[in-house]
Amino acid sequence: MKLIHCSDIHLGASMRTHLSPEKARKRQEELLATFSRMVNYAITEGVAGIIIAGDLLDTAECDIKTRNFLLDTIREAPVEVYYLCGNHDENSMLLSSELPKNLHIFGTKWTKFNLGEVTITGATLGTDNEELYRSLNLSPNAFNIVVLHGLDKYGSNINEPDTVNLDMLKNKNIDYLALGHIHSYREGKLDYRATYCFCGCLEGRGFDECGEKGFVLLNINKGQFTRKFVPFARRTLYEVPVDITGLRTTREIINKISDTLDVSPDSLVRVVLTGEYTVDTEKSLSLIESWFDTRYFYFQVRDSSRLQIDLNAYRNDISIAGEFVRMVEESDLDDAEKERVINMGLNALAGREVDV
Amino acid sequence: MKLLRCYIENYGKLQHFEYEFNGHLNIILEENGWGKSTFASFIKAMLFGLPSTKRANLDENERAKYTPWQSGAFGGWLEFEIGGKTYRIERFFGDKSSKDRVTIYDTAKNTKIDDPTFVEKKLGINADTFMRSTFIQRGASENADGESIRERLGKLIENNDFDSIASIDEKLKERQTEIEHLRGKGGKLNELKSELESTLNDIEECKTASAQSNAINTECAENMAKIEALNQIIIEARKELQAFNDLQVQNEKIKRYNSLKAELDKLTASRDELLAFFKQSPPNKSTMERVLEMQTSLNSFQSKIDEIDSNSLSQNIRSLETYFENGVPTQEEMEKIHTLSSSLDTLQNSLRLTQNIYEQTAPNKRLKYLGFGAFGVALVLIIVGLVAFLSNTPLLITFIVLGVIFAGIGGFLITKPTKKDNLPAKITATTNIEKSRVEFEQNKKIIDNFVRKYNEDPINYRESIFNIETNRRRLLEYRAELKNSSSRKQEMERRSQEYRAKLNEFYLQFFPDVTNYSNCYQELQARLGQLKNVNAYFEQKEREVREFGAEIDFKAQGKTDGDVASIQQKISDLERKKDEIVNLNSTLNSKLLTASTRASNIGSLMATAEDLREKIAGLEERLNTIKLTRFYLNSAKENLTSRYLTPLADAFREYSRQLVGDYFDKISIDTSLNVLVEQGGAKKDSKFYSSGGRDVIELCMRLALAKTLFNGEMPPIIMDDPFNNLDDTKTQRALDMLDKIANKFQVIYLVCHSSRAEKKVK
Description:
The complex is a heterodimer.
Chain A: E1 2-6, H1 21-44, E2 47-52, H2 64-76, E3 80-83, E4 103-105, E5 111-115, E6 118-122, H3 130-134, E7 143-149, E8 151-153, E9 163-165, E10 176-180, E11 186-189, E12 195-198, E13 214-221, E14 224-231, E15 237-243, H4 250-260, E16 268-274, E17 276-277, H5 285-293, E18 298-303, E19 306-307, H6 311-315, H7 320-330, H8 335-349
Parallel strand pairs in A: 1-2, 2-3, 3-4, 6-7, 7-10, 8-9, 10-12, 15-16, 16-18, 17-19
Antiparallel strand pairs in A: 1-13, 5-6, 11-12, 13-14
Chain B: E1 2-11, E2 14-20, E3 25-29, H1 36-48, H2 62-65, E4 75-82, E5 85-92, E6 101-106, E7 111-113, H3 118-123, H4 127-132, E8 135-136, H5 149-157, H6 162-179, H7 188-277, H8 285-309, H9 312-323, H10 331-360, H11 365-390, H12 397-415, H13 423-453, H14 461-507, H15 517-550, H16 564-599, H17 601-660, E9 667-669, E10 675-679, E11 682-685, H18 691-709, E12 717-720, H19 728-744, E13 747-751, H20 758-761
Parallel strand pairs in B: 3-13, 8-12, 12-13
Antiparallel strand pairs in B: 1-2, 1-4, 4-5, 5-6, 6-7, 9-10, 10-11
Helix pairs in contact in B: 5-18, 6-17, 7-15, 7-16, 7-17, 8-14, 8-15, 9-14, 10-13, 10-14, 11-12, 17-18, 17-19
């Protein structure tokens, strides 16, 4: 029997990557389309059930059209869907509508659903979870999947909101602990029997969600199971550092970025300039962004490079530049300010244009 | 500071060149192309190193310019004295600064100094300042780049003149104004802030819409819960209604069950009745077959007894005895007759055969006819021959000869005996025929007499003999049978009696009296058939009743239907109530659609706000940087001016007085390092002077700068032929001045023409 474990889909959420309103809207639609594609994948691959481990909707930002499309997609699919409310599903839009027969929702107490040889048990955690953990009672003879939403922690963090205490779930006859909340794939061993797994989100939304995104495909057969992460996102976000040390012109920086980037044109790319530059370096961030803007779905450049300046060279320099550098260095400005001021001052003294 | 000696391993065109400096004026008089500028550059490179740059212009890239023409290590060493101590600095250069090697020794202690910036620190200047002050190159009037004196003087201190600070400040101010107008609310920053404010207002509206959306959503969710609760109640009510419906169905089923049960009872009665007839033990199939067999045998016996009794056998015997009224032929007689009949056939055949033989022994008539023919021809020929002979026709004698020949042939043919024409055989055959005919006649007569005895046809004597034979056999059989029939009849009567007793006993089990076995048998068979059918139907019906009975809730029997209408009314009320909530939710959903659509913009608006905040922060940071840059640049200019300008002017006057008397006494130096000379109440810029005058001003300015900038250790003044534009008088004065300076500072004077060294040499 095949099952899909997905989570943190955040349907309706805005795409906070400085996108234009048109592209942001397109990404929102792509998010919904990717969910729909996943359901089609489930049908094609003969998947019996889809487990959503929280945050299906981004309720605060989800509109009713998105909700209705979602429910119609589930309703039309010959697949059972098991949905756990996450922290973003509070006051879920789903609860105000007529739900499809194949959509099963976990409650705030342990809720069990049987699907063939598999028992799927889940509960939405609150702020008083101790009793909930204690009351988890699973048959040792069944294949048990437990679904929870929260950050994995050990120790005494039992009642922290949005926290799954792994210590409390040990030796409970769990076979697979399907978790949601963290937006990147991660797995680990819970006890002698169980594996816990965060499947990550389905599509990255911002540059804090870079890399491959998708879901976990479980294949269960007579108490044994295999799992594999299936990359499924329509687009991938990348944050790529590019060392510009030794480069002198914007053109050279563009060439270095071009040589460094090896990603699909569909991608969303953030390039972070690193390394050191000198006051002689010509570096126009706006020109770099303009150059790559049409080459990727979205391109952004961030400058973390540092000004390379030999303060000793100015220490004994009897000149305006020397005097200027010495004064700035002796000021109580913070280091970043000092660097910016020295860079601008020396560039201005060198007769270069100061960019706003 | 004083240079002591140096050694050039390789530097530009110079190689393996050693030079020892004196502590005062060192004049190096060499012709053009010797490498004086290279030497000057070497001293600077030893003190401060070579800058690393990628510039292609060789004048801006000393490392490239002075890379040795020949192979070998690029660099050398220099010994110098600072603060009473002597040091030796060794520098060798790579193609970039990271490959440079520098070693500094304290020669007195013979220890290494691990600080490549040792010289800079000791002198308090860097390479650029050294270049702009005590490193004095060729005269200003021959400047290849045509820079003005003011510009060159300006560059003594900075690449940009003081005027450019104002220009830079102005440009920065423009950038600042672009970001934020000095007055009013213009500028990019304020535009972004306005946009942010507007976006924040929109976000607030969205939040309000979101709150509404949430409230409506909550109400909808509550209504959905109510609908669900109502659905549960309706389901229960429908179950109740269904229970009533089920009751009716159960009652119908019970009726049907009872009907089936009645049919079964009826069948049971029929079966019991039949079983009673059969005394609970109906005869089986073999019994009935045996009974039928006995009945059939009984009938057969009766028929045969009747046949015996009917006397038909005696009649047959009498009839046959009449046929044989002349006596029944004995077996021997019949055999004899059969023998005679057979011999008659043999004789007949023998006669026919003998006749054939006789006929075959007759002469060959055809040959005889040919013989007669030949005689005839011979006669004709002879007659014709004779006639011809008589008529003297000798040739015709031939006819006579031929006639004789034909006559001979004819005689032969007529008289020729044949094989068949065998007389003894003919005689024998004739005898045999006669003999057989006599015998045949005798036998035939006997047979005729025998046949006629029983009135049979003698002609067809064979058929007649067969009839006689058949009748004789039948008569004998009838007579034998007549003899046996009496004993058989007795046996059959005995067995008939036995069968009847058994049959009576059997039938009397079921019938009060037995008159006709066949009728009894048929009656019995009919009843057995009925019993079989009843049994089969009974089993089917019994199963039907059992199975149907299992489906029936007999508890429902007797219950009433209850108040169906009341339940239906209840369901109807609940449905109406549910519809009201559904309708309410439908209205709420319309509102929810509007509110959630509006609220759904909050994400993109927040993203926009975040983006704007980031841009504003960036611009504010940029604005702050511009402001700070302007502040520090202007402060640097003021500091530099106040620290160096007045002492610089005093020193300039001191040196110019030595060179040209009081000619440049009334000078002033502005903040842009312009040297302004007051003449006739007006201040004249140095650019109005001749190239010689400008060189004087530059030389004095350099020396003034050196004096002003170096309060402690003074680096050596390196002069690369700076007086080539001066006239003889000024050159002499310059050389005199150089002499005086050399008393105080070490001077290295590089010159290519003896005229600018001679006087001093003299």
